[in-house]
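Sample intake sheet
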Amino acid sequence: MIRVLLVGYNGANNTGAEALLASDIEDVRAVLGPGAHLTVPTLNPDNLRRYVTEGPTLRIAPIPTLFFAAVRRLVKQSDLVLLVEGSTYMDTWGSPLLWSFLWASHCAAKMGKPCMAYAVDAGTLKPFNARLARRAASRTGLIVTRNRAAAARLRGLGVTAPITSTADNAFTFTVREADRGWAAREWPRAARGLVGLAMVDFNLFPAVMRPWGPKELCYKWPYYFASSPERTRAGEMLARGYASLADHVIESTGKAVALVCMEQLDETLAERVHRLMRHPEDARVFSARTHDASRMACLLRGLDLLVTSRYHAAVLSLAAGVPQVAVHHDTRLATIYQDIGLKEKWFLDPTAAGSLAGGFAALKLFTRLRERVDALLANPGLQRERLGRGYAEHLALARQNRKLLREFVCGRGLCMAISADDTLQRELSNTNQNGGAACVA
C-alpha cells in the first residue's frame, strides 16, 4: 500500500482548491490504484469533510496553525509527497502559506521521500522567500507548472530541479450532471439571464503572522489580514464600484446578478456590495461555504457574462465559453488571460492609474470595466473563438498531468506496490508502448 501525502490549501471553503483536490485524487487513484492510502492535511477538517469522504484509504489529518512539526510527521509517514496547491511558489496571499509547501519539500528531501509539485504556479517572491524557494524547490524530484511563465519564473530564481509545464488540473474537473442548471431551479430570477461578479478585496493581502489583532481581520490565529486606513477606504470604494456596476447591469439588461464568492473570505465584500445596491432583490450571494465545487462550477458555466478577480472562476467557466473580463489580482489571472489572448483588451489592472485609495483611480477602473461589460453583453461572440481555442488547448495539456505522475512514481520504484492491479498494469504497458516512460516492473 503506497502512502501519499497531498499537501495543498485544503478545507478553506475555496472552490478552486476543491476542484483541484478532486481532480488530483482521481489522478492518484488512476495511477496508483484504489488501494493507495491518501492523507490530506488541513487547518479546517470540518470544512474539508464537506467535499472529501474519509474511509479506509483516505484520511483527513488536522494540523495546527503552527504546522512545522505536524507536517514533518506526516511526511515521515508517507511514501510519496505531492504538492497540489496551485499557489505553491507564491507569497501573494502571505508568506506562511508558501512556507508550508517549502517545509513539506524540505522534509521530503531530508528523509529521501519522492516529492513532486503537481501542476502548480509560481509568482514574484520577496527576496527572503525567493532564497527559501530556490533551496527547497531545487531539491524537489519534479516540478510540473501549469503554464510556461511559471516555469520561467522558477528557472529565473535559480531552481535546478527538473521542471516541465502543462496546465491547471482543474481543467479536468468533472461536475455532477444533477447540478447543471441548479441556480435557475433554486432562484427563478436567474432564468432570465445571469451576470456573475467574482470579486476579491485584494486590499486584505498579504496575510501576516502576529500574536494579536482585530478579531474581524483574523483568518485563523495567528494569521491576520492586512489593515490600514488607506486599505479600508480602498475596500469601501471597491464595494461601491461593484454595487454601481451590478445595478447598471440590472437596469440596462434586465438580467440578474450573482455575487460569486469563490472562497468563504470573499463573503464580506459580496455582502457589502449587496447592501449598497439599489436593486438588491435582483442579486444573490453564492458562496463556496455553502456550495461545493460542482455546484459552483455549474453556476459559473451558466453565466451570460463573468467579471472576475478570481483565477479559478476564469478556469472553471471556460468549459462553457463564458464571456469574461478580469480585474487583476495576482499573476495567475494575468498569465491565463495572456495565454488565451484576452489580456490586451479584457484585463484591467486596478493599480495601473495609482492606488484605489484615490477616487480618480477607482472611477477610471469602473468606467473602463463598465465599457467592456456593455460591449460583451451587446455582442457575446466577441471572445468566442479565443475562449474555445484556449479551453481546448488547456484541457489537452492538463490531461498530460496523469501521465507525468505515472512516469514519476514508476521511476521511483513505486509501481512495484501496484503490480497486482492487472487493469492498471495494462494501462501502464500501453503508455510505455506509446512512448511513455518504462514504468512497469
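Comment: Residues 353-358, 419-441 have pLDDT under 50 and may be disordered. DSSP finds 17 helices and 16 strands in the chain.
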